[in-house]
Amino acid sequence: MGIRSFLAFELPVEIKKGVSAVSEDLKNSSLNARWVKVENIHLTMVFLGHMAPEHLESIQERVGAVCQNHRPFEIIIQGLGVFGSKRHPRVLWMGLSGDVKRLAVFRDDLQDALEPFGVKTEKRVFKPHLTLGRFRKGARSTPDLDTLLSRFDTLTSPACLLEELVLFRSDLLPGGAVYTPLGRWPLER
Known about the structure:
By secondary structure, the protein is α+β, with helices and mostly antiparallel strands. Helices cover 27% and strands 38% of the residues. A five-stranded antiparallel β-sheet has the order 2-6-5-4-7, with helices on both faces. A four-stranded antiparallel β-sheet has the order 3-1-8-9.
């Protein structure tokens, strides 16, 4: 079956503080959603799917080569939003601004480097976000959703740097996903 895995950035401390504060408010709301554990929130760059164990070393070499050609990225929290519509929301996310165009190029470079390993190329425009929760099937908008989106519309944070890309193994267990780092690559300065 392979190793379910993805490439992502762990969150800087200042961003994690903002995520944690908002997450507490969300858990106390009436929204019909499953909330992501704060310690599991990260900025995903590429989902690899089920990676063949025999490709691990080659994949790591290619990821390392891509990271050598990019410098750290500056990010800033930028409000909340939903995927789906407000009437039929699917995902509640925290937006990010900053070096978004450079992050998109980085994501594309990673996808190009990993294409020989069967990694599915994402064609949608890269929209950096942090998934806070997933609405349960059939969930509908409530006044709570509008209130939360309005309250956090101007949410921001200090500018922070993403300096190290991580390859995570993802094991889906009854108590939730468990992420284990398999490799780390610093971005070149």
